[in-house]
Acetyl esterase/lipase
Amino acid sequence: MTGLPETVGLPGGPAALPFQAVPGQVDIEFASRASVRLRLANAVLRRILRPALHAVCVLGESAPLRGDRAFRIANKVDVLAAPLRPARGTRREMVRFADFRAEWLWHRDDPGPDETEHGVILYFHGGGFVAGGLHSHRRHAARIGHTAGLPVLNVDYRQLPIGHITDSVDDALTAYRYLLERGRAAESIVFAGDSAGGGLAFMAVLAARARELALPAAVVAMAPFADLDPAVRNAHPNDRSDSMLSARALSIPAMIGFARDGVLDPAWSPVNHDFTGLPPVLLQVSDIEVLLPDSEELARRCAEAGVPHTLQIWNNAIHVFQAGADLLPDARAAVAEIGSFIRRVLAARAAEHADRTTAA
């Protein structure tokens, strides 16, 4: 049975209790051995998908496809994912903004987008800032929402070549303001995302803090792409063990798409920020994937700032394995962990609000 039985606090001592933080201590939970299905999926993808993605990367770095042409081709991936459907009982409603679009997703048994007294998940999809969108992540985001018992606003933010990462952050904040203006309390909103969307979730909460907006209740990130600088990943041993991505693949949108005259602004990467005042954080990542150091550094930033957090490291998992919950027991367990975390943190926020109201 897949689970997270082993909890470790680093550099030492017992792990912090939920929503408490021991200054300087990174709180890590290790999953038990990967299921047979997950190990098989890992082996198959390593032999098929990684070589294919490597070939695409070579094309994306070379003329005549280098840069914008390659990014436009990658943008088409979301269209190919159109046949994916959310689980039966899922409701959908499109929301159009000036520069991007989003989609409400909620299960018929859960509160809908107009029931603003309940919580909500603001979701940012992955795809390396060049691929993915509403189609590719609709089923995955809807599953997380239903597991938490909440509606999800799935955001199709601008990506390369149309939008720079600064535009992606602007879109994330626009979506957040939309929820606030519709009567949602900040403490009832959870930012969540995977891969590039996981990094964007952190950038969005940091941008909200910089603009003195009320911060959301929590941040959930699955294998976040949180450091645009490829240096650490290039030197990490997981660059050889990841079954899907390579450090080289992740460097292309950063160094070819975002960099200006070959230079990346450190401010574009959430790992380079102080996390003081951020809400509780849940991180999930695989022990063999190339984005492991990004999650580790985010957890360190949380520890330095005294932010309550948990870094869950899953055994032998593929990148964003949570999206495979239809087939993988490990993925279902991970999504259940996310749902439980969201419910706990929103219950804690609701209790705090009730206490403040009573005291007033």
